[in-house]
Design goal:
about 375 residues; alpha+beta; five-stranded mixed barrel; globular
Amino acid sequence: MCGRTACTLASDEVSRACSYRDRRGQRRQPRWRDGDADKYRPSYNKSPQSTSPVLLSQRHFDRNAPVDECVLASMRWGLVPAWFKENDPSKMPYSTNNCRSESILEKKTYKDPLIKGQRCVILADGFYEWKRQAREKQPFFIYFPQTEGTGREKRDDDEEEDDPATSADNKENSETTCPPEEASAVLTEGGEAPDEWTGWKLLTMAGLFDCWTPPGGGEPLYTYSVITVNASLNLKSIHDRMPAVLDGEEEVRRWLDFGEVKSQDAMKLLQSKNSLTFHPVSSLVNNSRNNSPECLQPIDPNSKKEPKPTASSKIMTSWLASSEPSKRKEPAARESEEERDGEAEAQKTGLLHQWLQGAKKKPRTK
């Protein structure tokens, strides 16, 4: 199952997090489809019917686009098939938030988009899952392990030199986020090649999408469904299902390349993978109206004491503490001495409470 996600990056950060090297070795980043960057809203607690950033082939919109060019789009969670006859998409008689990989070809709702090559990648910081217990359910946040150095972007005024080993790890992880499409955005608006992304490594989940147009006419609605598989060994104790994760640049590229990679071959990518990490979080996330950093905060469900942070949760702390997206957009912006001291202290402790005791943050906005 996958019924709740988080995607806290601003629209420009999502694009940069999907930067990649093309077949000629040039660094590029996918553009947003016209107007879709404005439709996307970052959130610590995304539920079905909300919009999420989705990566897909540009050929779905332009048949003359290069074979491996990709584009970012904002799509609503919960697939509405093109053949749906009602005027209101909320009248879908059954849930399409998730589709089981084992039965895709058995249900017209999913079989049609699959045959048409309407494959996509849903992007998120991670997803939430609930473990059934005696009296209540314990929520967990599940995500890609983050390497040392993830959590803030390198600034021009950083004094320390990069550790070669760490830099290699960052390069590998930044390049495995998105596929090597060819001509999305070669240069930034300033005319320079985009820097490698060193922020949060986004989770890449396989999905199917469709385009529904109201029978009486109106704006087309793009929607998606997250494909699920049997849970991996390390997640079975939480839930018996998990999203079909595409782990690495090559898997993402093959899933999106509907021209060369046929449906049957693409479906072989839908496997359980033991590549995710997780930590328990507060029951605040149970209510989708709660949209704050506390939704992601690691907790110890058996103790009121603060839990011992894992390496990845420390990195999450540093990333969340790096400031709101609106402030992170300008890499040239300089921190004050006080802010730098506070960040250094937070990095030493690696605890979310260090940040929460500081200035209160509002839910992230565009």
